[in-house]
Design goal:
By secondary structure, the protein is α/β, with parallel strands linked by helices. The protein has two domains: about 120 residues, Rossmann fold (3-Layer(aba) Sandwich); about 80 residues, 2-Layer Sandwich (Alpha-Beta Plaits), CATH 3.30.70.980. It is built from nine helices and nine strands. The strands form three sheets. A four-stranded antiparallel β-sheet has the order 7-8-6-9, covered by helices on one side. The protein has a three-stranded parallel β-sheet with strand order 1-2-3.
Amino acid sequence: MGALVDRADFYLNLSAFSNLKLLGRLTGHTGEDHINELLNLMGLYSRRNDKVKTYSQGMKQRLGLAQALLSDPSILILDEPTTGLDPIGMVDVREFILKIAAERNVTVFLSSHLLHEVEEICSHFALIFNGKLIIDGEIEKIIQSLDEVTVEIEATPRKQVMVYLEKSEYVLDVQELPNLLKIRIKYDNIPHLVRQLGREQVEIFSLSQRNRMEAFFLNQTSRTGT
């Protein structure tokens, strides 16, 4: 089992390779080929001899993932791995988590308050609220069980679309934002609305569900009380 809890921490005046070599002694995994393989996996091989103090926070987190994989674990526990990272760093870490799971056949347990991140990375999830397990299962099946969802639409002509959505029997609520329209709709009615918009010769540039996990979380916690 490997783990990365919160932020990775290393000897800043040592190189990435030296840090992993030193930490590998704790698990008996000090082989240079193995360390270089992990650094390459994390996109750090070209910087392996640079001192960690020259690394960005995102690079340090990737080095932390490499450290967590030193013992070739079948299970990897990650606690808020993208906290404090800039957008590029967050994307990099999420991509490497998916890469680890796919290429190294590792089961990843991710703890996160970023619900969009959970939805993007995980296939299954468990919701713990006030110390109690509220629900667990496959994310896609749970999302499909939602009665209502929020959908954002980018379409033209804008005024015509707005008027149509306000009159549609499928739309529960519509809000005009600076660059798009946000509607509240029952999940099963989304295909019907799309077909209707098509018949109205509306040009749809994008239609996406937003914050599905957030909606689910709020729904479940309101049932259990705060």
